[in-house]
Amino acid sequence: MPQVLALKNAPPSDNASIRTMFDRLAGRYDLFNALTSFGMDTLWRARALSIVRPGQRVLDLGCGTGDLTLGAAERLRGQGEVVGLDLSPRMLEVARARLQRRYPQGAPVRWIEGRAEDVADHGVTYDAVLSGFVLRNLRSGLDQVLVGLRRSTSAGAPLALLDFTEPRSAVMRRAWRAYMDRIVPLWGKALFGGDFPEGYMAASAACFDKPEEMAARLRTAGLTEVRYRIYGCGSIVLYNAVNPERVR
Ligand SMILES: C[S@@+](CC[C@H](N)C(=O)[O-])C[C@H]1O[C@@H](n2cnc3c(N)ncnc32)[C@H](O)[C@@H]1O
After folding, report:
1. Is 197 domain-assigned?
2. Inter-residue contact 110 to 83 (CB < 8 Å)
3. Range of 72's domain?
4. What's the domain count of the chain?
5. Strands across the sheet with 157-164, in order?
6. What is the pLDDT along the chain (248 residues), one digit of tens a residue?
7. For a substitution probing ligand 1, which of 83, 121, 137, 236 has the most ligand atoms within 8 Å of its CB?
8. What CATH number is given to the structural domain containing 146?
9. Is the Cβ atom of 134 under 6 angstroms away from ligand 1?
10. In a domain, 92, yes or no
11. Is 223 in the pocket of ligand 1 (CB under 6 A)?
12. Rounded distance from Cα 53 to ligand 1 centre (Å)
């Protein structure tokens, strides 16, 4: 079991608490992201977005404020559709406003407020799935989500899933923990005050699957062509996989 950084508040352990946490963070989430990743998140997202092709119906699972959704809409070049699904109404509100600013004439984007666990219940078939920094929030629901994705994606649909991990090298892990424990909370408290869930990012990354475990989980769910690449000094993983056939 990895060492878990101390949490100042009880960690959110169910979807209602996760929703409340992200509702509170929504207003300044994008700024926080840009500051804490030194703007590097745009590079990792661009790698994930490379699976998107014109004509697809793309799901952005746990779309938050819509970074990947908007990126996918751009890559579709007017052919296809993007669906952004998220639990948090406030994150979706920010996403809608961003879409309106970027595409005042409208764009083929739909938003669904709901649980990733219920993705197969919407009766929509997707040709590609993106997800940014959501997996480790799903806890015991993760396998259910993967089953849902196999039921709601077409045969051959690619998936590109980004999330945090603890760096493998001991030196980088120490540096990463120090950064998460000392620097990130400074930004967090400056931007969100008492709403900042101190320790959550690091603890949820430490508790989450190691990259090889997550890759094995994807294979167990029946996904193929599973591979992962590590970025961000060892702390960011992009998982790629393919749904070989649609499960009914
Ligand atoms: C760290 S944010 C990432 C947002 C966005 N994907 C990005 O790349 O910036 C995690 C998002 O996942 C959403 N989320 C967490 N658990 C979820 C669930 N069970 N179903 C749907 N969305 C969920 C949260 O509401 C939040 O918007």
Report:
1. no
2. yes
3. 15-163+222-243
4. 1
5. 109-113, 81-86, 57-61, 128-132, 157-164, 236-243, 224-231
6. 333 333 444 557 789 999 999 999 999 999 999 999 998 999 999 999 999 999 999 999 999 999 999 999 999 999 999 999 999 999 999 999 999 999 999 999 999 999 999 999 999 999 999 999 999 999 889 999 999 999 999 999 999 999 999 999 999 999 999 999 999 999 999 999 999 998 888 898 888 999 999 999 999 999 999 999 999 889 999 999 999 998 88
7. 137
8. 3.40.50.150
9. yes
10. yes
11. no
12. 23
Is residue 193 one of the residues assigned to a domain? no
pTM: 0.94
CA of 9 to the centre of ligand 1 (A): 20
Ligand 1 atom closest to residue 26's alpha carbon, by position in its atom list: 27
Tokens of 94: 């920010």
Quick check: is 104 in a domain?
A: yes
